């Protein structure tokens, strides 16, 4: 029984450990979206602007006026009058303005979505940078181990007077350089973690993955472009601005209809009075002049602007897609060439057998490592480009 309890506790501890280490980029982005202070502030701003827009479609306040005229020479007594009235625009104006407010509210939500995308793209860039730095840290840790081994061997040979002081100094400098690289990478990781925590509203994030989570392959160009037109806030906003202009034109046309006033009027003198309904019409002969033409011009502008910006965005998209595919092909060639090599181990064996001097060994090793580092850098840049390319999916 006790053994079963121990096994159960161990299982719980292991599961908790796995959970603690299972932070993914998606989970990080969800945290950032929830905790980012700028996004929180923008949510409040969007709501305040939405309410402000809605208030613009309220009825004007009712009016109450009264007269009491006790002075003067008359035989009928003091004159009194009061009136309550309510002015309002033609009913279709409120409907048109309400539709415009709905379109403007959609625009506000798209503004938030664009800012959210900007924040999440930056957060994902930081995560990708951390993965790249951890991969480099793993490589440099192994290189320090190898450099330590070589330095100790050279030191032994120096003590046996089989190599000179110059050979020993070269090995020591190489060993120190590798150690310095680790310190630099660890400092870079610390700085990126600090930036990521700032995006997360100051809350620290635990993320130490050393492997990229997605493939570098992209879907076909046409399907991605169709997806971007539907999901990318920058492109959707163009269509939304056009819809707002169309609705503003409808409102301008409805504003040509008369404003109305209705109310109750009471007039009285010496116990006698007259009362009844009051009605009035304001004909907008001058107030709406040229406003319909201006609204139509805005519609024409937005349609042309949307078409121009969409074509420009498509051209940029196709250029980026082509460049990405070329870079991916080059990376795959690098990867295929370097993955089958065991150069570092072979060079170390050749050095240990005395087939290479330390300088020859180190120069050959440096050449191979530069090629490997360039491949890692290329892989990282591809993921950064992919993040920018597919940001509409965040």
UniProtKB/TrEMBL annotation:
Q: What organism does the record attribute this protein to?
A: Rapidithrix thailandica
Q: Is Transmembrane among the key words of this record?
A: yes
User: May I ask which residue range the UniProt record assigns to the signal sequence?
Assistant: 1-20
Q: Which Gene3D superfamilies match?
A: Outer membrane efflux proteins (OEP) (1.20.1600.10)
What protein name does the entry list?
TolC family protein
A Gene Ontology CC term for this entry? cell outer membrane
Give compartment(s).
Answer: Cell outer membrane
Which SUPFAM superfamilies does the protein's record reference?
Outer membrane efflux proteins (OEP)
């Amino acid at each position: 029984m006790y053994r079963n309890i121990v096994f159960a506790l161990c299982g719980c501890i292991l599961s908790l450990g796995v959970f603690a280490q299972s932070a993914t980029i998606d989970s990080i982005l969800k945290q950032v979206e929830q905790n980012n202070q700028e996004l929180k502030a923008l949510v409040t701003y969007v709501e305040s602007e939405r309410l402000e827009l809605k208030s613009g479609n309220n009825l004007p306040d009712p009016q109450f006026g009264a007269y009491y005229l006790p002075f003067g020479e008359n035989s009928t007594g003091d004159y009194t009058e009061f009136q309550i009235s309510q002015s309002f625009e033609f009913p279709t104006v409120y409907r048109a303005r309400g539709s415009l407010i709905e379109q403007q509210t959609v625009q506000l939500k798209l503004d938030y979505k664009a800012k959210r995308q900007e924040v999440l793209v930056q957060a994902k860039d930081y995560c990708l940078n951390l993965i790249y730095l951890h991969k480099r840290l793993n490589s440099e840790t192994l290189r320090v181990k190898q450099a330590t081994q070589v330095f100790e061997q050279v030191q032994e040979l120096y003590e046996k007077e089989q190599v000179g002081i110059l050979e020993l100094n070269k090995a020591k400098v190489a060993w120190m350089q590798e150690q310095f690289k680790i310190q630099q990478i660890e400092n870079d990781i610390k700085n990126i973690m600090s930036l990521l925590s700032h995006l997360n509203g100051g809350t620290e994030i635990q993320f130490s993955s050393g492997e990229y989570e997605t493939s570098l392959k992209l879907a076909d160009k046409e399907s991605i472009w169709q997806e971007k037109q539907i999901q990318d806030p920058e492109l959707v906003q163009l269509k939304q601005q056009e819809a707002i202009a169309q609705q503003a034109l409808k409102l301008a046309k409805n504003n040509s209809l008369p404003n109305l006033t209705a109310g109750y009027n009471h007039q009285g003198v010496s116990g006698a009075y007259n009362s009844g309904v009051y009605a009035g019409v304001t004909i907008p002969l001058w107030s709406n002049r040229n406003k319909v033409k201006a609204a139509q011009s805005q519609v024409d502008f937005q349609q042309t602007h949307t078409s121009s910006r969409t074509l420009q965005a498509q051209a940029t998209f196709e250029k980026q897609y082509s460049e990405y595919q070329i870079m991916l092909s080059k990376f795959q060639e690098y990867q295929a060439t370097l993955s089958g090599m065991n150069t570092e181990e072979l060079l170390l064996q050749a050095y240990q057998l005395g087939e290479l001097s330390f300088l020859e060994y180190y120069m050959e090793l440096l050449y191979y490592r530069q090629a490997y580092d360039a491949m890692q850098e290329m892989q990282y840049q591809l993921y950064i480009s992919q993040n920018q390319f597919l940001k509409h999916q965040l």
